[in-house]
Design a protein that fits this description.
By secondary structure, the protein is α/β, with parallel strands linked by helices. The protein folds into 2 domains: 285 residues, Zn peptidases (Aminopeptidase), CATH 3.40.630; 128 residues, 2-Layer Sandwich (Alpha-Beta Plaits), CATH 3.30.70.360. Helix content is 36%, strand content 20%. Helix 5 packs across helix 12, helix 7 crosses helix 8 and helix 10 crosses helix 12.
Length: 428
């Protein structure tokens, strides 16, 4: 067998500038929700250059709405196409999905950016801009890995299914649409920003809204009212207790370096109408982590029991109950056995390229991996070159070396997972 490891490494080294150029073009397209088409056009053109079979479609919002795990603020996906490109194998090998998302979160306050948020600026070995780390750098790693295989004339037995999907940042409608369209494989890799760590497990998450009612009164005689803000403190304290109880049950060693494996985060509190009035309504919104060994339904039931206890034990809440609502985004948890063959292949490829053993942990956040593993029944690993330390932050960037190294690792993973077809082999 040829020394493909060395050949791939040398080819990728020679293509660094082309990879950076592709990433810069992608970052310069502000592919926020509803605006993904121009960035996808760049992906499509690259896939055409590689001679891949291409499938382009706008997800059917009405079909998706019927699925129990569909979440999105919209059902109209006009101008938001999914892209799937397939490198067909010769037959007889395992198939692999390479899943990435093209959508990015909004840039936030522009004044906090050193350069324009979608500049794609290249400085000191890094590419800057919204989406560079999360996760257009990972998309380019996939495309470079496929290009290396094509350029070196390596023929595979199994199919490689590259996916550039929309809507991940809002709960995964793009990946769900790809699953419902029939795309399945023997394994899947998602290049979310793991900082080159391997995540065979990832938590899920749910958004919740808690409404606390009070009784309005003049601020000068506030004792005649009931402050919803003061009563909300009871709910907040119970949420903290629930978080402690849930995390005390986490004994998985993959979480040993994560201080709070499944947080309950309060991200927004809103209430009151006037400084001189007792607030009669407070709304709390937050995110609840879902453990890898539970379902989203189990997590919901535990939160619902917590709120039920509050309503039963507090005299005010007995007649003015706290209300709990699930809204917005959700991400399903995902887990693959640490001894799964796909994990082993990826670990071996990492060792071959980096000369060291990778860090294997559980993800502290959710991805589309939950949909791939639970709905698609596809063993899924999350591994990518970016880092969440800068994802969703101003001055987001990715290190070019990591993007190329990830491409190298992914190329080796693909050829060892899908297997190389020897000369003369053909599909059955």
């Amino acid at each position: 067998m040829k020394n493909y490891e060395k050949m791939i490494h040398e080819w990728l080294k020679s293509q660094q500038q082309n990879g950076v150029r592709l990433l810069t073009k992608l970052v310069q397209q502000a592919s926020t929700q509803g605006n993904e088409a121009k960035a996808q056009a760049i992906v499509i053109e690259k896939c055409r250059q590689l001679g891949l079979e291409i499938d382009i479609w706008e997800p059917d919002g009405e079909q998706l709405r019927e699925h129990p795990y569909f979440v999105s603020v919209r059902t109209d996906f006009s101008n938001s196409p999914n892209v799937v490109a397939i490198l067909r194998g010769m037959g007889g090998g395992r198939s692999l999905i390479l899943n990435s998302h093209i959508d990015v979160v909004p840039e936030g306050e522009v004044a906090q950016w050193e350069d324009e948020p979608y500049s794609g600026a290249v400085k000191e070995g890094k590419v800057y801009g919204r989406g560079a780390s999360d996760m257009k750098g990972g998309t380019v790693s996939f495309l470079l890995a496929l290009e290396a295989i094509r350029a070196l004339g390596i023929r595979l037995k199994g199919d490689v299914i590259f996916q550039s999907v929309v809507e991940e940042e809002s709960g995964g409608a793009g990946t769900l649409a790809a699953i419902l369209r029939g795309y399945k494989a023997d394994g899947a890799i998602i290049t979310e920003p793991t900082n080159m760590k391997l995540f065979p497990k990832q938590q899920g998450s749910l958004w919740f809204r808690i409404t606390v009612h009070g009784k309005s009164a003049h601020g000068g005689t506030r004792y005649e009212g009931v402050s919803a803000l003061e009563k909300a403190q009871i709910a907040l304290a119970e949420l903290q207790k629930l978080e402690l109880e849930r995390n005390a049950r986490i004994v998985d060693p993959l979480y040993q370096h994560i201080p709070i494996p499944i947080p309950i985060n309060v991200g927004k509190i809103e209430g009151g109408m006037w400084p001189s009035s007792v607030p009669d309504r407070v709304v709390i919104e937050g995110r609840m982590g879902v453990a890898t060994n539970e379902t989203v339904e189990m997590a919901k039931q535990e939160m619902e029991r917590c709120i039920s206890v509050i309503n039963e034990t507090d005299e005010w809440f007995q007649t003015h109950p706290v209300e709990l609502e699930w809204f917005g985004a959700q991400w399903l948890p995902s887990a693959i056995d640490e001894n799964h063959p796909l994990v082993a292949v990826l670990v071996d490829a990492y060792k071959c390229v980096k000369g060291e053993t990778p860090t294997v942990e559980a993800s502290p956040w959710g991805t589309d991996g939950g949909l791939l593993s639970q709905v698609g029944q596809i063993p899924t690993i999350v591994f990518g070159p970016g880092t969440t330390a800068v994802a969703h932050h101003p001055n987001e960037y990715i290190e070019i070396d990591n993007m190329l190294t990830a491409a190298n690792i992914l190329a080796l993973t693909i050829i060892h997972w899908c297997e190389i077809a020897e000369k003369g082999e053909s599909g059955a």
